[in-house]
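Shipment paperwork, digital attachment
Item: protein structure file
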Amino acid sequence: MNASQHKISVTISTGMNKPLIKLIAEPSPQIFISEKEYLTLKHGVGYWQAVHKKAIVREEILKQKIKELEGEIRGLKSRLFDNPNEQGKSKNNEGQSAPSPSPRPRGQQPGSKGHGRTLRPNLPEKEELTDFKKTPQCEKCGTPYVQDENQEIEIIEVEVKAYTRKNIRVCMKKDCSCKGVPNTIIAGSAPPQLIKRSPYGISVWEAILLNKFYYSQPTNRLLNQYEEMGLPISPGSIAGGLKILKELFQPIYDALYAQQMTEKRFHNDESGWKVFENIEGKIGNRWWLWLSRSPSVIYFEIAPGRGANVPLAHFQNIQHDKIIIVCDRYSAYKSLAKQLDFIILAFCWAHVRRDFLDAAKKHPDLEEWAFSWIGKFGELYHINNLRCDQFDPKFPVQWQSESFKKHHETLVEKMAEVAKDRDAFIQANNPENSESTLLTNIQYKILTSLQNHWKGLSVFVDYPEVPMDNNKGERSIRNPVTGRKNFYGSGSLWSSQLAAIMFSVLQTIALAGLNCSHWLRLYLTACAENNGQAPTDLSPFLPWKMDKDRRERLSKPPADTS
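Attachment content:
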């Protein structure tokens, strides 16, 4: 037997209970190879070790990616199915019994004093008498009953009806034989019309504008309702009329912009808007609706893009040396502030808070950490609210009351504490200095963003009149977003411009506390009386130029003119 061979003898015996195997082997065999084969195998060891190491690294990367995608899935599921309540599940409370429900039921308690029926002094009254068909008599003697004090029952009704307003013009002709006087028929003046040769009056256009741009409903629904009332209207007639009305509201829209350029505090936001018209140089139908809200004006404009050039063009005519814009952390606003040095950006704390909420939803292991930071932000909101309650906008911070200064100092200390905790975590968990995990990287990224935007997030400390968040801006843009979902944008460029104009006009009127229906009826009437053109003097329709009596009248519903 040569060196490459060996012998193994095997003995197998079978018993009653279990088999027995016995192996007898000689020493390990020896294999002879050439030097070339040996060097090839030796070099291959390093190669396969490197391949194995790369495979391990790739596997770790894929595991991290899987965790990230699982977090994304949890975040998307939470948006669809979770309770909107943002209370976190603290790990310290796990295993404890749920708190017992409050013995006090929700709502108004039995026996408590109510507020009574809601008074509606602006509703007109229509009296109707309910009388007996036959005078009641005494059952025993037959004596008729005599009238006593009447009882009143109030029932609120809403009556919507369509009717044809037929105007009869009195015509007269000459009844003499005077020479030199034309023998023509003279007719009485025709009622003013908003749109010439249109059969639809002011009330129809008022309802269409309010329904679409204030109540965010598709015009088709209103037309279906009118058809049920016996008034069929073609969509083409409405589209043609709205195109004419756009020019009537353009002067009001320009006046809103001019007024806004005189103000110092702004809330800005933007949202997508569909425009289904092919425009040269524009790819796709996604446009953007930009919002700029100031103390007295809510201004929208439609733009083909989402770049910084849109707000840059908007604010280039500002009339102050310094203004403050409350916004999110979108890069277009940062670029805007770099190009216009008179702009101070105040970033939104609600968006920062949202970063931590998203982390808690996507990664349950970060829930306790995220809600601890959200609690710190809640303390900032609470202290700032106490401070703002004592703030007098007539005076600067250093001239405020002692109670204001006390809350102001507490706020400054709390901001410094939050900044200290933030910096300590960033320094201790820098990915370049230590072995980091997915969760640590997420924490580091969120807190680094907080650090990078800290200057803009601290503006409210020095300017108490500036809110901590951009909720005003987001509330203002909610109505157009609802409309976009209901009627899916605009079919043409002019209709998208009309949408921006009407969103601006109606929301500004509502911001001033005026009744939109009343204001719109008066303005359309003034346009009709001016031969279908916008009034020359717009001051009676601009809230900041109205006197107190007119503002009070326009804050009530329009009078019944039927």
